[in-house]
Amino acid sequence: MRHDKATRLLDLARMLAGSSEGMTLDEMARAMDVGRRTAERMRDAVWAAFPQMEAIEDPPTKRFRIPSGLDSLFQTPTAEELAALRTAADSYAAAGADARAAALYALERKLLSALRGAARRRVAPDVEALVQAETIAVHAGPRPFEDEQVLAAIRTAVKSLQAVSFRYQGGGTPGRVREVTPLGILFGRSNYLVALEGSNPRPRSWRLDRIHDIAVLDRPAPPPADFSLQAFADESFGIYHGEMYDVVLRIRPDRAADALRWRFHSNQTVTQEADGSVIVAFRASGMLELSWHLFTWADAVEIVSPPALKAMMVEELKTALKAHAG
Q1: What three-state secondary structure class fits 12?
Q2: How many CB atoms lie within 10 A of CB 264?
Q3: CA distance 240 to 214
Q4: In whole angstroms, what separates CA 11 from the centre of its chain?
Q5: pLDDT by residue (tens digit) across 112-131?
Q6: 300 CB neighbour count, 10 Å cutoff
Q7: Which residues, 6 or more positions from 24, have their beta carbon under 8 angstroms from its beta carbon?
């Protein structure tokens, strides 16, 4: 127990050393999943161990930080942390996300090069043992397109709040040059640039593998102040956006355990009925992609609503049956 408490205090110290603006007591409590009184005691314990910690007035509260960082003795990564980093990089590489894989491999090299010789020799065998004992299950599906030049241009534009132009080989007019305000990137089975075009206030998604000749323009293009990329992503099932529907699904009692562990959507509510079945409800667009996913549940799922999703599922079943029957 004492060891666990010391580890948690060190975790908090790392957070305070890694935050440029500092953390409030409420933020500490949320980060450590404790009550405010416990957060106060943890802060005081960290302050006793690291007297360089400072309090910053931020009315109506205070923020706390360790401005000079922590000694490398307290920052040495564990074998488990380095193995998790390697596994994450390997999973990106296996999925075809080469740019993100390269970034994580580079981070791993930097962390290892920063370790003192004795620490590196001590941790390296454990990392290799863990990496050899863990592997990545590769799932069928499209390999995401991650051209480093395209990603670098978008990220530069996002950081500098500038517009980008590109030739888009998709949509109703393939080859047309677009000038957009970049809002962010959605990574998934396919990767998309989310951006605003012209005076249309509704963001659109542009597939990265169809973007060519991208350039950052010398024109300011800040995103709307109230835009949230996460909120935009949460509106859809998968990547597709369109008309929003209130979706209700009923999963059979014999598949209830699977349904209770499954996440259909980020804003879902899940309830278990008296007969053991599970009701999953959420609001989203992208009914076609949802119907494709529901194929994998076979007859274990019943579409309660909306009727449009049920009709779409029936049509998809008819199409599949026509291709495979007799």
Answers
A1: helix
A2: 21
A3: 23
A4: 22
A5: 887 777 777 777 788 778 77
A6: 18
A7: 58, 61, 62, 63, 64
Encoded tokens for 66: 């360790």
Answer whether 28's CB lies under 8 Å from 66's CB: no
E strand segments, 187-277: 192-197, 204-207, 211-220, 245-251, 269-272
Burial class (CB in 10 A: 0-12, 13-18, 19+), 91: middle
Dihedral of the CA atoms 136, 141, 146, 147 (nearest 10)? 130
Q: Where are the alpha helices (DSSP H) in the chain?
A: 2-18, 25-32, 36-49, 72-75, 79-94, 98-114, 117-133, 148-160, 229-234, 256-261, 287-295, 307-324
Q: pTM higher than 0.85 for the full model?
A: no
Statement: residue 1 has pLDDT above 50 = no
Are 280 and 297 in contact by the 8 Å Cβ rule? The answer is no
DSSP label of 77: P
Please tell me what DSSP assigns to residue 18.
H
110-141 in b/e form (b: 16+ CB < 10 A) is: ebeeebeeeeeeebeeebeebbeeeeeeeeee
**Mean pLDDT confidence for 5-33:** 89
